[in-house]
Amino acid sequence: MNALLLRTVTSRLFWPVVMLLALVAINVIAFPGFLTITVKDGHLFGSVIDILRNGAPTLIIAVGMTLVIATRGIDLSVGAVAAISGAVACSILLGSSDPGSFGTVAVAVAVALLIALVLGVWNGFLVSVIGIQPIIATLILMTAGRGVAMLITEGQILTVDSAPFKALGSGFWFGLPVAVVIGAVIFALAALLTRRTALGMLIESVGINPEASRQAGVRARGLLFTVYTFCALSAGIAGLILTANQTAADANNTGLFIELDAILAVVIGGTSLAGGRYSLAGTLIGALVIQTLVTTVYTVGIPPIITMVFKAAVVTAVCLLQSPATNAAFARLRQRIAARHARVKEAAAS
Amino acid sequence: MKKTFIGLAAAGAMLLTLAGCAGGGDTTAGSSEGPKPVDELVVGFAQVGAESGWRTANTTDIQAAFKDAGIELKFSDAQQKQENQIKAIRSYIQQGVDVIAFSPVVETGWDAVLNEAKAAGIPVVLTDRAVDSQDDSLYVSFLGSDFVEEGKKAGDWVVEEYKDSTDPVKIIQLEGTTGAAPAIDRAEGFADVIAADDKFEVVASQTGDFTRAGGKQVTEALLKSNPDVDLIYAHNDDMALGAIEAIEAAGLTPGVDIKIVSVDAVKDGMQALADGKINFIVECSPLLGKQLVQIVEQINNGETPEKRIITEETTFDQEQAVAALPDRQY
What we know:
Oligomer: heterodimer
Shape of chain A: globular
CATH class of the largest domain in chain A: Mainly Alpha
Number of helices of chain B: 11
CATH topology of the largest domain in chain A: ABC transporter involved in vitamin B12 uptake, BtuC
CATH architecture of the largest domain in chain A: Orthogonal Bundle
Number of strands of chain B: 12
Largest sheet of chain A: 2 strands, antiparallel
Strand order of the largest sheet of chain B: 2-1-3-4-5-11
């Protein structure tokens, strides 16, 4: 029992989960109906469902980002890739004679994802072949990408009226939001592919020591290509969900600062920016913490002027609680308590 | 890509400038020498950027108005950066244009460059947004919307709509970007008007950052904690459009179960108004071109334009939207 408790407390996921539960508790106090889930028009409806649905794009990008960060890289271009993929899909839909047909939407989605894939290959090329530092390599696409999205939309907000496309963002499958289903599939896929095969270990080895991995016969170049392409692809999917959710491509605002949310989700989840060991489950918790935080601001009624300060305080608290220094302090505390117990026992025995 | 494009454009503009200088280098600061023929006038316009559909409409209208009037317009896009705008204004001063017009990205930090324009004898006109300066001799005229007035117009409609009701009216406000002048002023004007009757209660007020996604997410959350809300006041159409989605997802009918008032009157907003999903829109017109041309002509004729010129704007209810929609330019 005690060992189980110890394992729980020392787990990297302990503090993020505590934070998530604390945020949920705050919401329940401010708004007692927070956890209520009802069925409305044949689908689930409630605050928790909103959090899952609105958090799905961040989660999808964060899954890709986790793998990139595990290779000691970073991808700043995900927001721009999301904007481009949304812009491409909307302009195809608007240009077609029948935007409401399933076939047109399938073509638009396929082309948008193909372009996201190409952008990922570009990032992978810059990082693995040319050898540019990831932060610089992806910064190029981060700044230029929004310009590309603006060129595609010609600076306008493109509103589309297409039921199948809209379903990506706000539709339901078997009572669950489509966005949540897509998020779950991508999460499961990434977890299976990297944890049920050697892929995850190879990614970690490249992150810990690229040179040693190379000498051990790991093809770092191919792996880097793969993770950056996967990350851009997930950004493309997230961009489609975001765009469908607002039924419009907004080159300026779609996915704005989502790269920071995704990186934050990864960090809250306990994956180190220095590369190596990563935790997809942690990323999931991280993404949920971020989205619950956003909802908390609305339900508690925190004035917009201090919203940023409130969010910063919560994030700082999570990071401090998780830091090695805090963990070490807790470990010392436990040792001291254990030692005292031992002394008490000794005294009682003698 | 974007940067390169701008770089090329800037290089092109410089070439044009050099060509222009050779022909008319001696025509600087000529406003006091009597009216010039209209086709010899040169106006420099430093735009904020192309951040929204509203802004693009603003740019297109100004370019078209000057073309119609036969006045040469030098146009620059500052990409939402003050430093770019200051550079553009300096280059207009060096080129010796007849009038400089610009929409300041931010309110402060303009005194130095405006003093340079003043020293060169080039009159400056502000469009759409104001500058915060002690010295109001730095510009000739400020042409733009009165955001407080827009908020008041929205409030007036709400008061009129609920004049027969004695029940409390619960209102959710979707604010614009925190700290932006339109967000502050539209909230202020609205609050002033509805304060007259204490049956009006703003139960929640959160920022949706002027975007659809923001408006949708905020409304979703607020509708759950305040299910009995009567009215939503959005600081722009895009947030109202997001709110419509959230209201529909909650199984309610926008415009009927929950009434919506917003500001801007962009095309998508007008469409929603005509469809009965929004109840009332206060116009914030980007079509400043004609009025700007008039100011330039007045300056050229040696007249003094009024210091504060308010854009010609109206309001739309649902029937007016149906009538106005076919001719909507933006």
